Amino acid sequence: MKSIFIALLFLTLSSLSWAQTTSTEQHITELSKTKWEWMADKRVDSLATLFDDRSRFVHMSGTWGKERELEIIESGSIHYKQADVHDLVVEVFGHTAIVWNRITLTAHVRGNDVSTEFTVTEVYQKQDGEWKLLDLTFSSVRDTHELEH
């Protein structure tokens, strides 16, 4: 009887843990999607709350911090018009979540509309009950690039 109770307890705790992870992964997926919308809409106030003060942004033309990224978005020197997400993988490691997106980014850069395939890596950390973006890295890839799940 004791072994049946222990087995049931283990199964219950395992399913609760799995449900929590799945819920966190869904939350991070939605947060990533919302971030792309905020970038397209130039909602720098919302992004300023999401981006950690020490966050870094890696682009094809350089790497910089939060203030510069917000300035770029607000000024429109890079206007992230639309990010079509073709594939997405989320992994949660305690209070850290990593998102890999395979996207086609349509942006207005240096006076031209461009469409580029990227794999974008996003790193989030849960701080005081809120998820903060620590890193956003664009990696140029071929259109045949795939994310393994």
Mean pLDDT: 87
Radius of gyration, in angstroms, nearest whole number: 18 Å
Specify the oligomeric state: single chain
Residue runs with pLDDT of under 50 for 5 or more positions: 5-20
Text of the CATH class:
Alpha Beta
| Helix/strand order, N-terminal first | HHEEHEEEE
Global structural class: alpha+beta
Describe it for me?
38% of the residues lie in helices and 47% in strands. The chain has 149 residues and is of the alpha+beta class. The chain has one domain (2-140): Nuclear Transport Factor 2, Chain: A (Roll). It has a six-stranded mixed sheet. A hairpin with a 2-residue loop joins strand 5 and strand 6 (130-140). Keywords: Signal. Pfam families: DUF4440. This is Nuclear transport factor 2 family protein. Residues 1-19 form the signal peptide.
Question: What would you say about this model in short?
Answer:
Helix content is 38%, strand content 47%. The protein is an alpha+beta fold. Residues 28-133 form the DUF4440 domain.
Give the helices and strands, then pairings.
Blueprint: H1 2-40, H2 44-50, E1 51-59, E2 62-65, H3 66-75, E3 78-93, E4 96-109, E5 112-127, E6 130-140
Parallel strand pairs: 1-6
Antiparallel strand pairs: 1-2, 3-4, 4-5, 5-6
Features:
single chain, 149 residues, alpha+beta, Nuclear Transport Factor 2, Chain: A, six-stranded mixed sheet, 38% helix, globular
